[in-house]
């Protein structure tokens, strides 16, 4: 069986890949600032895959592409996406170190079988998947949106990746999301001596926040809106003349975001009217589209999962009101795609993505098992696509 052969080959490199996974865990970096990760990963390729060609991506210093088996311009390309950015304060709490380790493992396994490849195999280092507030130096996320715009996935016949999670799921219904940062501009005044002269920009943020909280009652179970106030004023004895908040709105499909966005913007507009403040809406780095899984890729992946003894399920087996989002969805709208989940913790609600405990779970024996299985499953699926 091909999976058994791939497992044997993975064992030759696994200690290095597990070491890379731990390095990314110990050295978390925010989006577009993944300098250490970029250097560590590209050095890994140079040291362990003789035939790889590594290329920079213009205007994205922490992105890269690596290719093997490029022989002529008529070849199609199959891409593996990896992510390595972390979250503020809680590090690799979404397991992007595991995403990298799996993609790198699969790329290595395929490099050992170049004689069996008809397609170009490309690994794409994708910065900034996490959406951070736009007030951050490099906030906004959208790394893959920028890579798409630069033509990195041109001529692709398939794009694949695996994300660590609390469940094994071949076709998760990752939802669409859009980011907004909201500024209210008021007028400063002494908070005790002459508050009636001021226009309170913090009141505007609080009114908008409470309006959105009231609106949630009328939203669909798959629609979400969540935000934080990133600037609430300077001092308690000054009427705040400037405040800022960061928001994310989600809907099951991209089309539903347009309807939801109108409702949300009305909350901000009404708060501005009530307080006499002016409103400034700042758009994020593009909309993350909902994920579309290619059926052929899913079927191949499911078959190899069974061969490997991984209990892989479909989205029909899970509550789909709990899903997150990814800029990989934008890729899936243009190319046949697979963005499967592999569990590294039990699906019992005790540990979930975006918790410090989940970051700790990315360097456990279960995580290593997921890296090994994921590398094999991606490599086997891509080998099946060769003609």
Brief synopsis:
36% of the residues lie in helices and 19% in strands.
Number of DSSP E strands: 10
Shape type: elongated
Question: What is the H/E string?
Answer: HHHEEEHEHEEHEEHEHHEHH
CATH architecture of the largest domain: 3-Layer(aba) Sandwich
Q: Report the average pLDDT across residues.
A: 97
Protein structure class: alpha/beta
Span between N and C termini?
Answer: 19 Å
Q: Numbering strands along the chain, what is their spatial order in the largest sheet?
A: 1-2-4-3-5-10
CATH fold type of the largest domain: Aminopeptidase
Pick out the low-confidence regions.
none
Count of DSSP-assigned helices: 11
Task: Tell me the radius of gyration.
Answer: 23 Å
Structural notes for this entry:
The chain is of the alpha/beta class. It has 2 domains: 2-174 and 291-384, 3-Layer(aba) Sandwich (Aminopeptidase), CATH 3.40.630.10; 176-283, Alpha-Beta Plaits. Helices cover 36% and strands 19% of the residues. It contains 11 helices and 10 strands. The chain has helices at 2-10, 14-26, 35-48, 96-111, 143-149, 201-215, 254-275, 295-308, 328-332, 356-361, 365-384; strands at residues 53-56, 64-68, 77-83, 120-126, 156-165, 176-185, 224-231, 242-251, 278-283, 337-343. The strands form 2 sheets. Strands 1-2-4-3-5-10 form a 6-stranded mixed sheet, sandwiched between helices. Strands 7-8-6-9 form a 4-stranded antiparallel sheet. α1 (2-10) packs across α11, α2 (14-26) packs antiparallel against α4 and α6 packs across α7. It is elongated, with a radius of gyration of 23 Å. The mean pLDDT is 97.
């Amino acid at each position: 069986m091909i999976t058994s052969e791939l497992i044997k080959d993975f064992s030759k490199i696994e200690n290095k890949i597990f070491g890379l996974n731990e390095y990314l865990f110990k050295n978390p970096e925010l989006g577009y600032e993944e300098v250490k990760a970029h250097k560590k990963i590209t050095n890994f390729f140079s040291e362990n895959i003789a035939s790889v060609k590594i290329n920079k991506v213009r205007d994205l210093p922490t992105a890269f592409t690596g290719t093997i088996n490029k022989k002529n311009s008529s070849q199609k390309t199959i891409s593996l996406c990896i992510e390595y950015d972390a979250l503020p304060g809680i590090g690799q709490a979404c397991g992007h170190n595991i995403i990298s380790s799996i993609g790198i493992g699969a790329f290595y396994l395929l490099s050992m079988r170049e004689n069996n490849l008809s397609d170009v195999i490309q690994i794409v280092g994708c910065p900034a998947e996490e959406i951070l507030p736009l007030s951050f130096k490099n906030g906004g996320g959208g790394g893959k949106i920028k890579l798409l715009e630069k033509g990195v996935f041109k001529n692709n016949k398939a794009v694949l990746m695996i994300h660590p999670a609390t469940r094994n799921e071949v076709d998760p219904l990752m939802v669409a999301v859009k980011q907004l940062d909201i500024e209210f501009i008021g007028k400063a005044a002494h908070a005790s001596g002459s508050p009636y002269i001021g226009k309170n920009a913090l009141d505007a943020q609080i009114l908008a926040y409470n309006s959105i909280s009231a609106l949630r009652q009328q939203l669909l179970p798959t629609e979400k809106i969540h935000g934080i106030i990133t600037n609430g004023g300077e001092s308690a004895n000054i009427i705040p003349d400037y405040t800022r908040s960061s928001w994310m709105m989600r809907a099951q499909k991209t089309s539903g975001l347009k309807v939801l966005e109108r409702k949300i913007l009305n909350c901000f507009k009404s708060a501005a009217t009530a307080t006499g403040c002016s409103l400034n809406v700042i758009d994020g780095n593009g909309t993350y589209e909902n994920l579309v899984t290619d059926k052929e890729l899913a079927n191949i992946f499911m078959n190899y999962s069974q061969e490997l003894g991984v209990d892989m399920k479909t989205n029909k087996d899970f509550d789909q009101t709990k899903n997150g989002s990814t800029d990989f969805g934008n890729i899936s709208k243009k190319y046949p795609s697979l963005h499967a989940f592999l569990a590294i913790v039990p699906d019992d609600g005790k540990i979930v993505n975006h918790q410090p405990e989940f970051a700790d779970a990315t360097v456990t024996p279960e995580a290593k098992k997921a890296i090994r299985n994921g590398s094999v499953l991606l490599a086997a699926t891509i080998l099946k696509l060769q003609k």
